[in-house]
Amino acid sequence: PIAPPETTPPPAAPLKTPIKTITITGTTVFTPQQLQQFTEGSENRALSLEEMRAIADRITQAYLSLGYLTSRAVLVDQTITDGLLQIKAIEGSVERIDILGTERLKTYLRDRLNLGIKKPLNQRELEDQLRLLKLDPLFTSLEASLKEGTGLGQSILTVRVKEAPQVFGAVTIDNESVPSVGSERAGVVVGYRNPLGKGDQLYASYHRSNTGGANLGDFGYQIPLNAKQGTLSLRYAPNRYRITDPKFRDFDISGKSSLYDINFRQPLTRNPRTEFALSLGLTHRTGETLIADFLADSSTSTVLRLGPEWLRRDPKGATSLRSQVNIGLPWLGADRQFVSWTGQLERSQVLSANHLLTAQLNWQLTPDSLPPAQQFILGGRQTVRGYRQNLRSADNGISFSLEDQITLKRNAAGESLVQVIPFLDLGKVWNDSDNPTPLPKEQFLASLGLGLTWKPVQNLNLRLDYGLPLVKTGDRGSNLQDASLYFSASYRF
Q1: 430 with 411: CB under 8 angstroms?
Q2: What is the predicted pLDDT for the residue at 9?
């Protein structure tokens, strides 16, 4: 007899359970309206085990898409009665932080890392804090990893750092001093990181001109007051000068000044892409001028400074805006009261791998006659190149600079070694109508030029700028600055 063919029975239909209501507990991320979207179409009908798990998987996927990589949703171990299905969200957290490579800065690091490990743990927020710490000059390297902790949804964050050397500094030579006291100068800057173990910093600098006409000191201390990098800065800057220009040497003009400054800066928003901060400071300045050792003039000012700062980075560059209101107060013997507004707008744009275009606009506006130390300055490598340092100064002013940093050579690490920098500089100054000091006829300055930077060895930076003046002035001399040349050399350690 012929046996009948074998047949495979059809698979049994999955067992389904009638579900009336689905409750999701344990989440702090999603609103009730969002939770309804996860369960939409799944209530008041029968669901298989796979369909129940699919609801939990959708919630888990939503956590992952928002950066909550250690959070998930699971079905509660349950016996479904009265049609109630329970799903529990397990939101991840950091059980502890292990910090390796430093002892003195553990508290400093932990305070800042805590900003990025709020429950539930979000990978994007943690990465933001790690990127900011990688930019911190207190560290030369930083690595971090997450591993599974002892509890459900818990993780252990391990951070390994290498501290930067505590002592740092630079030796500089340039011709950026005012020619009347000697345009060439040499200087040294020395700093000490973390003297109190709180991420604080001490620094001191001294610059002297080649003729001995200028002796400038600068001493400062800075300490962070909170994990969001709110910073208190203290500064003292004494300055002694003597006119050494042969045309005025016989008058025996000398002077001195002292600057005392306290400033508090608090970022309100701070991440690798955006920073918005407010600052508040007070500056007290005294100065006197002597002719043949007899007092010819003296001045004292106390200035309250306040304003916002904004920075935005994007894949093609960065934009920054700084605004500051300066209020001259009748405090501490001040002899002048005034109000002024200063600001700076800058955009750096990456044109290609070897082209960085930077545009910068600076301004100062005031309805008052200002003391010399508060005036807007044109001339010099920091403002309008091609003219001598501080050639023009007035109550009000505006300047614009456009330059293209073109990299010609890089090292194996991709760092720029040789750059040429074509530039355009413009500026104009004018006095308040109540200012009795007359200005020279040429109140508008402009120049076209070319800069060259070279790093022949590690930490040594050389720069030369030549600016072609587009506006002729009648007060040019024989100084190297009057030949439209600026140079600088610095070695950092």
Answers
A1: no
A2: 64
The closest of 336, 435, 423 to 393, measured between CA atoms, is 435
- Chain centroid to CA 133: how far? 13
Alpha-carbon distance 234 to 261, whole Å? 6
Residue pLDDT, tens place only, 129-156: 999 999 999 999 999 999 999 999 999 9
User: Cis omega (within 30 of 0) on the bond before 165?
Assistant: no
What does DSSP assign to residue 249?
G
* 384-398 per-position pLDDT tens digit: 999 999 999 999 999
Read off the pLDDT of each residue in 247-265 and give the average, rounded to a whole number: 94
Cα torsion 455, 457, 460, 464 to 10°: value is: -30
CB 372 within 8 A of CB 395: no
- The gap between the terminal CA atoms of the chain, to the nearest Å, is 100
The reported pLDDT for the residue numbered 436 is: 86
The DSSP-derived string for 181-232 is: G-S-EEEEEEEEE-TTSSS-EEEEEEEEETTS-EEEEEEEEEEE-STT--EE
Enumerate domains of the chain plus CATH numbers: 16-90 (3.10.20.310), 93-163 (3.10.20.310), 166-335 (2.40.160.50), 337-493 (2.40.160.50)
Name the strands in the sheet holding 21-25, side by side, starting at the edge strand that comes first in the sequence: 21-25, 84-90, 72-75
Q: Which amino acid does the sequence have at 129?
A: Q
Under a CB-based contact definition with an 8 Å cutoff, are residues 243 and 251 in contact?
yes
Structure tokens given for 487: 């140079």
